[in-house]
Write a structure and sequence with these properties.
This protein starts with 9 loop residues before the first helix and ends in a 25-residue tail after the last helix. It has 15 helices and no strands. The protein has two domains: 51-194, no CATH class; 199-395, Up-down Bundle (Methane Monooxygenase Hydroxylase, Chain G, domain 1). With 421 residues, the chain is mostly helical.
Length: 421
């Protein structure tokens, strides 16, 4: 059956739109354009953030490569100082916090590759099939010994260099060892002495995306609960689930900062502050997970048309603000007292919501508000047992039914943060 087409002239269609018809295609195009603009701005912001995060590493790698080349060529007399700068860059390219280990792995991998390559060249000669055999044996040998992936790769790469360059370059083995030591040592020297990064600044930059992500999605959930908008809460849940990159970046930054504070004399005075950050990583991770449960149950709450007391979205909003305050006070090097107080206020509002009456999913949301607030208190430096005690106190003050008036001498006081023991 043929489909009737609109044979009216464009001017006629435009007139119809002016007369009150809806331009569906135009609305869709406008929405898609706006999403594209937002995504472009977000992508540019993310890229600039990654550049700022990697800027220090790039300068360190450039300095280490140049020094390794200069020392190998000018001081040690190596006419082709290729391996030293490669080793330096390879060490710095390792995940931050693992550079000392990467230097050891680099040297071990070189040793295995040289040994296997020289032995098989002596027995079998050089050629394509010999090269394939050398790489296979080097990989299997290191795997059998239980070596890390870095050692396996380095052993195979060194074996390839030995087999391919030995016919044209004599006595390659000793310079390869020396360059491995030199490159790794120069990399550590640059990171520890010549150009040590500020470990607290590194952690602050790494923590910002993770904490911003958590706060933003909690805010979206609070808005969705107020308007009973399931789509908004579902979007927050999906975004929070995709948090592996932010948490991995934070974990690597903490490990790198601890390594810098250990190796660099100029950063030794930062050790106590870094310990505090390191202890906060796990509770922040737990807060992410518990917030995910909170948001998922909020979706079910809306779907099941359960009651949403006014104080419930307020409690979730206080959690979001607590995360922001924690980020700010961490960055400023302050005691996170405001973040603690806001976490307890979230629990207090959750207690009001529970007293007003909630359904099954609503009770789970209330429980997760308490659990997430406890995680944030622990992240702020409070012991778990003490945090739980303060959570119970803040929640219990609001368990009285709404219709029951408080006695004059029992007026609940705003929750305050306890001193850190």
């Amino acid at each position: 059956m043929a489909v009737a087409r609109d044979k009216r002239q464009p001017m006629v269609r435009r007139t119809a739109l002016r007369d009150g018809l809806v331009d569906i295609d135009g609305a869709r195009i406008a929405e898609a354009t706006e999403q594209l603009r937002h995504r472009s701005r977000a992508t540019l912001h993310d890229r600039l953030h990654r550049v700022r995060m990697a800027g220090g590493l790039a300068v360190q790698a450039g300095l280490a490569a140049g020094l390794a080349y200069l020392i190998s060529h000018k001081v040690l007399g190596n006419p082709q100082p290729v391996f030293a700068p490669i080793s330096a860059v390879g060490t710095l390219a390792a995940s931050v916090g693992q550079r000392f280990r990467r230097t050891i792995e680099l040297i071990v991998g070189v040793g295995v590759g040289v040994a296997v390559g020289d032995l098989l060249i002596y027995l079998l000669g050089t050629g394509a099939w010999q090269l394939g055999l050398v790489v296979t044996v080097a990989i299997l040998l290191t795997i059998f010994a239980g070596a890390s992936v870095a050692i396996v790769i380095q052993a195979a790469a060194t074996a390839v260099l030995i087999v391919t360059l030995s016919p044209s370059t004599q006595n390659l083995e000793i310079p390869r060892f020396v360059d491995a030591f030199l490159g790794g040592g120069i990399a550590l020297l640059v990171t520890a002495v010549l150009l040590p990064l500020n470990p607290l600044r590194v952690i602050n930059r790494a923590a910002r995306p993770a904490l911003d992500l958590l706060a933003t999605q909690l805010d979206a959930t609070a808005d969705g609960l107020r308007s009973r908008d399931r789509a908004t809460i579902q979007g927050a849940l999906e975004r929070l689930r995709d948090n592996k990159e932010e948490l991995a970046t934070l974990g690597e930054a903490i490990e790198g900062a601890k390594e810098t504070a250990t190796l660099s004399p100029a950063r030794w005075h930062r050790r106590d502050e870094l310990t505090h950050y390191a202890e906060a990583a796990d509770p922040i991770d737990r807060a992410m997970r518990n917030s995910g449960t909170l948001i998922r149950r909020s979706v079910t709450l809306i779907e099941d048309e359960e009651p949403v007391p006014e104080s419930m979205p307020d409690a979730v909003g206080h959690l979001a603000e607590s995360v922001r305050l924690l980020k700010h006070e961490f960055a400023a090097g302050e005691e996170p007292e405001k973040a603690r107080e806001r976490s307890l206020r979230a629990v207090s509002e959750a207690g009001r919501a529970y007293g007003a009456g909630v359904g099954f999913s609503g009770s789970v949301v209330v429980a997760q508000i308490r659990t997430t607030a406890s995680d944030l208190l622990v992240a702020s430096g409070i012991e778990q047992e003490e945090a739980n005690r303060w959570i119970r106190t803040a929640f219990g003050e609001q368990e009285r039914p709404v219709a029951e008036p408080a006695k004059p001498d029992e007026t609940p006081k705003p929750p305050t943060a306890p001193p850190v023991g």
